[in-house]
C-alpha cells in the first residue's frame, strides 16, 4: 500500500517539475529560482524512488504520515504554479504560454521542498538495514509534534530486527516513563500496542515484563479500550498460564490497572480466562507463599461491581483463599484480600442469589472469613484505614448474620466510642445496616445494639 502511494507521489513530483519549465519569475534578479526548484524536485523524486526500493518492514506508520503530508504539500505547490490568484490562469496543456509567479511564492515553494527532502531523507535512514543511528535524533522538519517523532522512534525500535535485545527492552520501558496524556494517546494510535504484544511474545523476560507494565500504564488513556482487542487478552492469559513469575506479576498489575480505569474490560478479561487463571494463582500463592498480593489486587479490581465475576469466586476456592491471606499473608496481601472481600460483599449486598450462594450463615468458609474480619478489626487498632475496610465488608453483608449473632454488633458498638472519626462513622453505618427494616432480623439486631450500649453513643 505504501509502495503504491510512493508511486503516485513520484508521478506528482514529475508533474511539478514539468510545470516549473513554464514558470517565469516576476523579478529578473531571481530568474534562477525555477531552475533551483527544478533541481530540488529532481532530488526529491530520486529520494522517493530510493525509499520505494527500501524494505519498510512491519511498521509503516511514519511513512504513511510523512508521505501523505508531502503529497498535500506538492499538491499545493503545483496548484500555485498553475493557478496563482494574482496571475493569469494557465492550464497545463497550454504549453506555449508561461506562468508569471511572484518571488515570494517561489520562496515558499522552495521551503516546502526543503522540508520534504529532509523528511524523505529521515525515512530512508529510519529503515536502513542496520540499527537506528544518532541522525534519527533530529526529527523531520515538517512534524509539528515532536512527541510524535519520539513515539515513532521507540515503536520502530521494538519492531527493528537489527536492534539489540537490550535496546528493545529499554524502548518498552521508556514508553512508560512519560506521564503525559498526549504521549499515551499517540502510542496507542501509532501502533504501540501491537509492538508491545510482539515483544511480549518474542522478547526475553525483561522485555516481556516492561511490555506488560507499559500496557497497564496505557490504561490511563481512554483510547486503550478501543485497541485492547482479543490478542491482548490472549497474550495475558498465555503469560499467566506459562510465563515466568516476574512477568506474571507484571501482567497481573496490568490487569489490575486496566480494570480499575475501565470497568467495562472486566467481562472481556473474564471471557479470555484471565479471571480463572488469576484465581488459580491465588491458591498457588497461598501454597508457595510467594507474590501474595499479585493476584489478590487484580481480582479485587475485576470483581468490583461485577456480579458474574463475584459469583465465579463463590464457585471456586478463592473466597477461602482470601480468608487465608487475610489471616497469614503479608501486609500487602492482607490489604488487597480485605479490599477484594469488601467489593465482593458490596456486590452481594445487592444480589440475593450471590448472598445465598457464597455467604450462607451455615457456610464454613463464610464463618471463617467473618472470624478473620472480626479479629482484624480488634488487632489493627493502629491502622484505621484497614479497620474501615474490614467494617465495610461486615456492613455489606449485615443481612447474612442470624438473630443470635452478637459478636459483630458488640465490637461495632465499642468502636462508636473510638477516637478515629472514620472508624466511628463506618461502624455507625454498619450498625444501621444491621438494624434497618430491610434486614430480616432487624428487631433482634436492634435489641442487641441497645443491650451493647449503643444508645448512649
From TrEMBL:
- On the tree of life, the source organism's domain of life is Eukaryota
Residues forming the DUF7792 domain are: 3-125
- The protein's name is DUF7792 domain-containing protein
Amino acid at each position: 500500500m505504501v509502495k503504491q502511494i510512493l508511486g503516485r507521489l513520484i508521478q506528482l513530483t514529475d508533474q511539478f517539475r514539468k510545470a516549473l519549465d513554464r514558470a517565469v519569475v516576476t523579478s529578473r534578479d531571481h530568474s534562477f529560482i525555477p531552475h533551483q526548484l527544478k533541481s530540488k524536485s529532481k532530488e526529491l523524486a530520486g529520494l522517493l524512488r530510493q525509499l520505494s526500493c527500501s524494505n519498510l518492514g512491519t511498521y509503516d506508520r511514519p511513512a504513511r504520515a510523512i508521505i501523505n503530508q508531502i503529497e498535500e504539500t506538492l499538491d499545493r505547490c503545483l496548484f500555485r504554479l498553475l493557478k496563482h490568484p494574482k496571475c493569469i490562469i494557465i492550464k497545463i496543456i497550454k504549453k506555449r504560454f508561461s506562468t508569471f509567479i511572484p518571488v515570494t511564492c517561489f520562496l515558499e515553494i522552495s521551503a516546502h521542498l526543503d522540508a520534504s527532502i529532509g523528511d524523505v531523507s529521515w525515512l530512508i535512514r529510519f529503515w536502513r538495514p542496520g540499527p537506528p543511528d544518532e541522525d534519527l535524533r533530529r526529527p523531520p522538519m515538517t512534524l509539528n509534534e515532536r512527541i510524535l517523532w519520539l513515539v515513532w522512534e521507540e515503536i520502530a525500535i521494538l519492531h527493528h530486527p537489527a536492534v539489540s535485545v537490550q535496546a528493545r527492552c529499554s524502548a518498552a520501558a521508556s514508553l512508560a516513563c512519560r506521564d503525559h496524556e498526549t504521549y499515551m494517546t499517540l502510542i496507542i494510535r501509532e501502533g504501540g500496542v501491537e509492538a508491545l504484544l510482539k515483544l511480549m511474545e518474542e522478547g526475553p523476560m525483561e522485555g516481556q515484563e516492561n511490555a506488560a507494565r507499559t500496557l497497564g500504564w496505557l490504561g490511563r488513556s481512554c483510547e486503550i479500550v478501543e485497541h485492547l482487542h482479543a490478542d491482548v487478552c490472549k497474550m495475558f492469559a498465555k503469560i499467566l498460564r506459562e510465563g515466568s513469575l516476574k512477568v506474571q506479576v507484571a501482567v497481573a498489575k496490568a490487569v489490575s490497572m486496566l480494570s480499575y480505569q475501565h470497568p467495562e474490560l472486566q467481562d472481556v478479561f473474564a471471557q479470555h480466562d484471565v479471571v480463572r487463571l488469576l484465581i488459580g494463582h491465588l491458591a498457588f500463592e497461598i501454597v508457595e507463599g510467594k507474590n501474595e498480593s499479585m493476584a489478590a489486587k487484580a481480582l479485587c479490581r475485576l470483581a468490583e461491581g461485577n456480579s458474574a465475576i463475584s459469583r465465579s469466586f463463590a464457585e471456586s476456592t478463592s473466597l477461602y483463599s482470601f480468608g487465608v491471606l487475610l489471616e497469614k499473608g503479608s501486609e500487602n496481601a492482607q490489604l488487597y484480600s480485605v479490599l477484594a472481600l469488601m467489593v465482593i460483599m458490596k456486590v452481594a449486598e445487592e444480589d440475593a442469589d450471590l448472598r445465598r450462594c457464597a455467604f450462607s450463615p451455615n457456610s464454613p468458609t463464610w464463618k471463617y472469613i467473618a472470624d478473620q474480619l472480626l479479629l482484624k478489626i480488634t488487632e489493627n487498632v493502629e491502622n484505621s484505614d484497614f479497620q474501615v475496610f474490614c467494617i465495610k465488608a461486615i456492613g455489606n453483608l449485615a443481612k447474612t448474620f442470624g438473630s443470635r449473632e452478637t459478636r459483630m454488633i458488640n465490637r461495632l458498638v465499642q468502636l462508636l466510642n473510638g477516637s478515629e472519626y472514620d472508624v466511628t462513622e463506618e461502624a455507625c453505618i454498619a450498625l444501621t445496616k444491621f438494624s434497618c427494616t430491610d434486614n430480616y432480623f432487624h428487631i433482634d439486631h436492634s435489641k442487641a445494639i441497645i443491650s451493647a450500649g449503643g444508645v448512649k453513643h
